[in-house]
Specification:
Quinoprotein_ADH-like_sf; binds 2-acetamido-2-deoxy-beta-D-glucopyranose; 575 residues; transmembrane; mainly beta; Immunoglobulin-like
Length: 575
């Protein structure tokens, strides 16, 4: 090789190594240090990613990693209920369904499931369950099943799609008033795609929804999009889709299904920009939006403005009012409007008209290229919007006034998929009583306590048993309020105790649970002190000795000795 080439390669290697070193220093040293030094995160710096793309926190008494959220806007009326998220992404730590309190503190996180979506509280046979999808995910599709956890976080039901090669998809799992489940299935079928200018023997993503009897797992109803909706109704531009089995073409993208009191299904399809009503016999009764829209817009185009949307729900079936999440974007190649929004629309079926009642825009006019949700909170008469691909959730008055907004990762970095939650929900009714006892761990004279998923704890009581006592009788030592996921007690002044346990108290002072007993051998501070004095003494002696030798050599050796050639010159020093 020519020397010039070698020199160039060396320069490249040095530059790349330098850049990598700089990156790792910033990412793994400076950012965590910065986040650690800031107990309250500044919202602007947070959104820019200065504390990391998704600031996390770890605990001593639990292995879970929790989110560190920031509050962008706050109103006291939002201080009600819990927030339900499924954070995933390259910076979001171990994925898992997560419950936060209204202030953004972690209440529950489970890390044993794979990728999860759609965590929410749903009612089945008069009882509340925590429901979510769990499985494997490719791009925007999933293959898995649906879990229903009881109030102790045990799996009470696992619901699966019915049919050969039919797997539950991540987009929908809705328990109806008839105690049945609605779910979506995306499966690949061979199809004639010549109407799209593609191969006549091509591959299509069939979009199916099923209604399942939860108690028996029996299939009650099934609807396949391609049997009712023409392939040419889609807006999705994907020149490569449809030629290979591994890359089928998804023209419809069904992402929400709900059932009304007449037994009709309300469905949202992202790639056709349509919200449709399907009868119990499978017939399409009406279509709002898309290429064959049947409604006249009374709001001058603002009501039919939605595109690439998610999560269509009846707000008032009787009044014909529905809500949806309008993405306005289906990835970089399919961008319609400047920002995403929640929408409330009123339909009139006699006159076939639609009217925009309210819209819900985030403080930063966030764009969500995918995912997102809108939920009505009946307890407070608020609307709750999850920004899907953008790690944020907001709460509004029904009329669209923004009340609160919280971020769970840096929103400016959201295009890089650092942390997302498919949907975000809020519920004031969830009560969690974990089966496991509260977790305690002592680390360096501090006792840490947490109880993953316990919602009713308001205070922790530290109890201790005397070292000298034979019967290990516990007495109350201290009581502190529970504010975050983990709290701690200092043990420094409790040297006469050798066993500790912590008791969880509810708001009436009743005991909810009790940790296991941890034994602790008090380490006298004197030992540490003596050890420190000895260690410093040793360091000082070595330094002093070295200094003395140097001094002697400098003043007795030959003149003009260079520091650099110390080794060389010392050999010549006369004894
Ligand atoms: C945390 O993880 C360690 C090692 O994986 C395990 O031994 C320990 O029991 C876990 N602790 C908790 C509280 O889950
Ligand atoms: C239909 O439109 C007409 C004229 O705009 C209006 O008078 C009537 O009340 C509408 N029908 C309903 C059911 O709202
Ligand atoms: C929206 O509703 C809230 C609470 O109901 C009210 O305080 C506010 O003034 C309303 N804003 C508008 C623009 O009507």
């Amino acid at each position: 090789m020519k020397p010039r080439l070698i020199r160039a390669l060396v320069v490249v290697a040095v530059v790349v190594t330098g850049a990598l070193l700089l990156f790792f220093t910033v990412a793994y040293l400076l950012v965590p240090l910065f986040a650690w030094l800031s107990p309250t995160l500044n919202p602007t710096l947070y959104d820019l990613g200065l504390y990391g793309a998704c600031p996390l926190q770890t605990y001593v008494s639990s292995n879970v990693t929790g989110l560190r959220t920031t509050t962008i806007q706050w109103d006291e009326s939002c201080d009600n209920g819990y927030v339900f998220l499924t954070p995933t992404g390259d910076s979001a730590g171990a994925p898992g369904p997560t419950i936060l309190d209204s202030q953004g503190e972690v209440v529950w996180k489970a890390e044993g499931y794979q990728i999860t979506t759609n965590l929410k509280v749903q009612r089945y046979k008069g009882q509340d369950y925590l429901t979510f999808w769990s499985g494997r995910k490719w791009g925007s599709l999933g293959a898995g099943s649906y879990y229903m956890l009881d109030s102790s976080y045990r799996v009470a039901y696992q619901v699966k799609a019915v049919g050969e090669n039919m797997f539950g998809d991540l987009h929908e799992f809705k328990i109806t008033n008839d105690d049945t489940a609605l779910l979506t299935v995306y499966h690949t079928v061979d199809a004639d795609l010549s109407s799209l200018g593609k191969a006549s023997s091509g591959w299509l993503t069939e979009n199916t929804f099923q209604e399942i009897d939860i108690s028996t797992g029996e299939l009650l109803f099934e609807w396949r999009a391609s049997e009712h909706v023409d392939l040419t109704e889609g807006y999705m531009w994907n020149p490569f889709g449809g030629y290979l089995r591994s890359m089928p073409f998804d023209y419809y993208h069904l992402n929400s299904v709900d059932k009304d009191s007449h037994g009709n299904y309300l469905i949202s399809a992202r790639h056709t920009h349509t919200i449709s009503c399907v009868s119990p016999t499978g017939e399409i009764l009406w279509v709002l939006g898309g290429k064959h829209n049947q409604f006249t817009d009374l709001s001058g185009g603002a009501a039919l403005d939605f595109s690439w949307q998610h999560d269509a729900r009846w707000w008032s079936e009787k009044e014909g009012i529905l809500t949806l999440f309008d993405n306005q974007e289906g990835g970089v190649l399919n961008r319609e409007g400047p920002y995403s929004k929640g929408m409330m629309l009123k339909l009139d079926f006699d006159n076939c008209t639609v009217e925009l009642l309210h819209s819900y825009v985030s403080l930063q006019e966030t764009r969500a290229p995918s995912q997102g949700s809108v939920q009505f909170l009946s307890e407070t008469n608020h609307m709750f919007v999850g920004w899907g691909h953008s790690p944020a959730y907001s709460e509004y008055s029904v009329n669209g006034t923004l009340l609160c907004e919280q971020h769970f990762a840096a929103t400016w970095l959201h295009v890089w998929n650092r942390a997302v939650s498919y949907r975000a929900f809020k519920s004031a009714t969830w009560v969690g009583h974990p089966k496991e006892p509260p977790a305690v761990k002592i680390d360096d004279q501090t006792l840490y306590v947490s109880w993953n998923g316990a919602t009713e704890v308001v205070a922790w009581e530290l109890q201790g048993a005397m070292t000298e006592a034979d019967d290990y009788e516990f007495s109350e030592l201290d009581v502190i309020d529970k504010e975050g996921f983990e709290e701690s007690f200092e043990l420094t002044d409790l040297w006469e105790y050798s066993r500790f346990r912590v008791v969880a108290l509810d708001r009436t002072g009743q005991i909810l649970g009790q940790s296991e007993v941890v034994s602790y051998h008090y380490e006298s501070g004197w030992w540490r002190f003596i050890f420190a004095v000895l260690a410093w003494g040793l360091v000082f002696t070595i330094c002093w000795h070295g200094y003395k030798r140097l001094w002697r050599w400098k003043h007795t050796g030959a003149g003009g000795i260079k520091w650099k050639s110390y080794e060389l010159q010392t050999r010549r020093i006369p004894k």
